[in-house]
Amino acid sequence: MDALAEGIGMDPVELRLKNIPAVSQARTGNPPYTSTGFRQCLTDGAKSFGWREVRSAIASSNKDRNWRKGVGMAGGMWVVGGGGPPATIIVKLFADGSVSLNMGASDIGTGTRTVMALVVSEELGVKPDLIDIDNADTATTQYATPSGGSKTVPTESPAVRAAAIHVKQQLLAMAAEELKEKPASLTMKGGTILSLADPSKKIKVTDVAGLKKQGLIVGIGYRGPNPANRAINPFAAQFCEVEVNIKTGEVRILRFLSANDSGRVMNRLTFDSQVIGGITMGIGLAMTEARILDRNQTGKIVSGNWHDYKIPTAMDVPADIVSVPIDSPDNEANTTGAKGLGEPVTIPTAAAVANAVYNATGLRLTSTPISPLVLRRALAAMEKGTSKQG
Amino acid sequence: MTMPNFSYVRPKSLKETFSHLSAGNARIHAGGTDLLGCLRDGVFTAEKVVSISQLDELKRVERLKDGSIRIGALATVAELTNHELVKEGYPALAQAALEVASPQLRNQGTIGGNLCQKPRCWYYRGEFHCTRKGGTRCFAMAGENQYHCILGGRGCYIVHPSDIAPALVAYGASVEIAGAGETRKIPVEKLFVLPEQGITKETILEPGEVLTAVLLPPAEEGFHSSYRKVRARGSWDFALAGVALALHFHEGRVAGARIVLSGAAPIPWRCPDSEKIITGQSLDDDIIARAAAAAMRQARPMQHNEYKIELFKGLIAEELAAYKRS
Ligand SMILES: Cc1cc2nc3c(=O)[nH]c(=O)nc-3n(C[C@H](O)[C@H](O)[C@H](O)COP(=O)(O)OP(=O)(O)OC[C@H]3O[C@@H](n4cnc5c(N)ncnc54)[C@H](O)[C@@H]3O)c2cc1C
Q1: Which of B65, B94, B92, B69 is nearest to B79 (CA)?
Q2: pTM higher than 0.90 for the full model?
Q3: Which of A258, B168, B193, B260 has the fewest Cβ atoms nearer than 10 Å?
């Protein structure tokens, strides 16, 4: 994409803006996307990064130094990330107003539990700290699909919402009897049920006689199907600034920015955490990680430990990572409007680094990792080329 | 792999240490950061592990009467990064120590262990019965040799893993080696062994000997030094290429020079030709380029490590240029 943009003398952001597809070009029948925030990823990302200004300023800052600066960007979409059935959730509302959420899915450190509590809270008006979550225990929870494919939130959260709604329906039916109203004309707010028409008609959730008698209300929610003939995908645009030593082939990543459209931003902290983690892993792909086999002799792996297989350290990741969330609920995709995040973040990272290295050096690298070893070889090839021409 | 069985002792004196070491297959344990990995990965075995951690006499860092600095073998790598005596007079050593491994490893690893650590060749450390482990074949020769040596290899193509050693060689430092018999003092430059001199050992230490201290000659006026390391990962990674410089300037000219490379050879590698080229000269671009080229004149790369030649030239030139008279 970058080479193409350069070939026709167009800014790489511009080239992408002119080619935003509304339909999936790879799938049979070219289904339309439920939503694509790619345009906003590109424009908002470029603006926050200062893309235009930095790009023109950088060219002149590189005279007579071994360390050359460069900027690069790349766009990406992730092939999955819409989630889907099956997912089954049980929500219990207890007579004391507290809630228990029972879910098979695990929280592998991504904040799944936080997000699910927020969905229950949104639906039932219960404070998140009154929600107890029992999850990923095969003795007490039902089957769930694995945490992968950036799908836990879009898979589980609609089922959580459905279970909470199931509880709410039963509760409102009980309250309607007591308030002499129709369930449909009632609403819930901060632990209280009130009439839409006459807010003075109200009852505290913990005072609802039916709930007190039963001790609890159990709601079950199932994940419904995704919309037919639609593609659900997260989108991203990333921008970075690097510094390359043209003598030694060292690369320093100075800053990174990622603008992600993953539908609704369910929680800003967990969202940014996925973005920072995704960039970190993307930098590993871009710069350091390689599985190396003893190709010519034994076929055994030689990089089979944490020293030789180099995942990035804090020293390889810039302190300056900016997350620009494109908060646009995808209401056609599912009932929480969320698409997946996590993996989509890692998609454009290595390409953005490679484009920045090109911008700094004129070297077009199309494989990873971009280590001093690889870069030094490429520099040598380029130096040979120029000396032949000269 | 699991940790094999061995007996473990913590003697209270050097004398006791020597007697433990004289028994069969015994190994010295200082910080254990290298030793335990080697034992677990089956690089070598030990029947007895002799911890020297109780020997307080090996922990001191002090200035001696003649102005030289004596660093006990158990001084940690972290101490070298922030000890006033080191930072003041021997910045290349402090810089090199800071480039070692990771904060946890620097806190635990010692200077003695750093000098006596085993090489990091992935064949040697892996499940390959190579020449250094007594086998008949060096797998690096026709294998994945991108991180291997371009100088000084023969039958084995390791690079010396230490960042600290090249800085010590640049300063003309010595080590004290004690055994059951007499204590020897050896220049660090003579401590290490090329494959052609002994393919299964890295140092001249005899079994049962303990490296007790490192001695740095007094720092002099007009003396400048530095260490820089190029690596694939920002922390917890050995050198692809590194250079320690110790330069003596007199009236704008180089009066004495030591240029020592890491990541180049099975031992810390001095560059006498380069040193000669810059001695007596004031540093300019031409001299610097000639010195950098001379350092690589003997280089014999293998299939995947030729990149190191230009890398070293660039690195040496960049480091020397920092001392250019503007
Ligand atoms: C993951 C990793 C990354 C690393 N990266 C770097 C790096 O970037 N640069 C670098 O320079 N080093 C690096 N190291 C090496 C590290 O610095 C050494 O492991 C450490 O300094 C060894 O000290 P120690 O006290 O733990 O030695 P130990 O593990 O106790 O001993 C190491 C070896 O030396 C012998 N020995 C120890 N002390 C003495 C003595 N006084 N006399 C005689 N023999 C002795 C032991 O028998 C053993 O064979 C790395 C190590 C690891 C594990």
Answers
A1: B94
A2: yes
A3: B193
